[in-house]
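2 proteins. here.
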Amino acid sequence: MGVVREQRAEFGVQPMCAGLGLARASYYRMQRSNAPLAIDRRHPRALSVKERDDVLEVLNSQRFWDQAPGEVYATLLDEGRYLCSERTMYRILAENQQVRERRDQIHHPQYQAPELIATRPNEVWSWDITKLLGPARWTYFYLYVILDIFSRYVVGWMLAYRESAQLGKKLIEQTIERQNLDPKALTVHADRGPAMTSKAVAFLLAELGVTKTHSRPYVSNDNPYSESQFKTMKYRPEFPERFGCYQDAHRFLSEFFPWYNHEHHHSGLGYLTPYDVHYGLAEKRREQRAGVLQEAYERNPERFVRGLPQPALLPTAAWINKPKEIPSPESVQAFNPSIIDIEQKNGFHNCPITNATPSGKGNSRGENRTSEDVVV
């Protein structure tokens, strides 16, 4: 900096900075920082210290201590007195820490976004309840659905007249038993509805050893798989505007869920059915499709300008709130070694909830009779 300052008259600032590898902005910034500090001068129209003390004394007097500055200002004007403007009264009170919200405000806790990953079936389930319009206004039927987020397979559902924690508890208990799995290897995710956060369901999951997680309040994206499944159901062309009775709704659902599980080709599963992925048939289906594409390519290779077509890839993991990519420790440490120490001390690690247990590929399908799926 000193060389540039001494030789700038002869060679100029830009050539000197370029020769020394110094940015011109840095040079001018240092020049400004070395400049003498400006003197804090009081504005000629500002109140004196004594006048400000007098205003504060009036505001804190017994007559005005429970009134707003606007009320004090108007009262003094009616009495023929003017001390300062209303805004200046607020400034004086703020300088003396006498302006605050008088009523205690509700401070909502900060909820951390759930981060769940499923790499196989029966690892993470998502369950939710949706309303189905009944025959008359203000009448509803309540549909309970438990969905495996990896395979999108509906492992259990129930239609009821009301939303009840006891019904939800019974559905979860029966579904775990029917799927013949180890409850300790399972995570059940739900939103914060009354039935989901009830003690009955919490005690059941704790007793079985099931890990339980919840969405953040008013965040529908924290339970995307259940919401997407409900949308698929309600966007079906045969879904009615209203159901005439309980039996009508039950008949529709008894036809919809077999279609959804066994016939619906899900885009998130490489256009396989949830049944194929849930019960370990995905690889076989993909090999079969690859053979069909191979035959089509051999018959007319000129039609495939990009070479041999391949079927869609099989799903490897299903996330709820997948964390952002974190740079590798080597690259971060090369840039700034102190960052690694800070992260380790602060516990800066995104640890998704997962259950490292053997694959459930060999699990038996179990019976899926209507009498077991529906609780009245």
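next one coming up
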Amino acid sequence: MKIGVIGTRGFPEIQGGLETHCLELYTRLAGNYNIQVTVYRRKPYINDRNKNTTYPNIRFIDFYVPRSKNLETFIHAFLATVHAFFQGYDIIHFHNTGPGFFLPLLKLTRSKIVFTYHNVSYTQKKWGSLAKSFLSLSENISLKNSDYVIFISEVLKSEMTKKYKLEKWKVISNGVNLPLKSADSDYIESIGLTRNKYIIAVGRFLEEKGFDYLISAYAKTGNSEFKLVLVGDTDYPTDYSDRLRALARQNNVVLTGFIKGAKLQQVYSFARLFVIASYSEGLPIALLEAMSYSIDVLASDIPANLQVGLEKNDYFKVGDEDDLKEKILVKLSGSMERDYKDLLTNKYNWDTIVRETYNIYKYLKN
């Protein structure tokens, strides 16, 4: 079976929840089943860390695109769609609505189209009115022209199945691996951190992630015993990312930049508290990753975070820095370790996710 994948920046070592999703999904699919996978990547994100990485039965096709908020996804999706048109794929799997604008062109081929809906892009604060209109149109095109739709959360499924009459769809969540905690702490010590004496937040520097009011809430706690660490970066410079860095510097917040592998493992392993302050999410992999390290967590009370099924005192009112401040102080005064293993194993298991995705491919091919 030949599969083409459009909509991700690529993997490995590329920032983003969608990129993590594709890494975990396609390496398992290609490794465990009789599948040849072609992943279309964006050259600006390919570097010395990832350009020579290979996986069994996975081929990468890399196209140059400008790093641009408004043009990058559009241009890359067009180039990938044109290439895919002539490849004779059995399945072409699109991820998210922006790339799905070109999806109807591939309906002219023998390929079946699978579309995974990760988040509602046109609600994000970074987009202007024209971009929001385009993304809304792309959503309509993507959902109406796909042979099968996968939603990563019940929240997205409920919203979209009310909005559109879909015949074939399924909820298949994001997943998470259960890691071993790091025994080493040399990296965190090199950036001025002490074991169990810091709070972390993870993600790209986008307005909907709420990092700015998280910093303000942290500053209001007046607690200098615990540092705040932001793990992540921006894909391209924006006014918001510049303001966020300035705010971080003013409040002695540690910025690690984009990290993966052993460095990220250390940061998770010795964190005292994880906070996700997002205004919108699909199903946040960063939250699941923090839980996999048994870290105590605080999450904004948006539907995507509520569906994870945490305890009541693990949530705070989204956008309310005073409520977040109080919840941080309560968390830091309480117990440290949490055990989410059963929840993660039962609901967010990559092996189950891969099997369910493969069954959709097999159904469409037959």
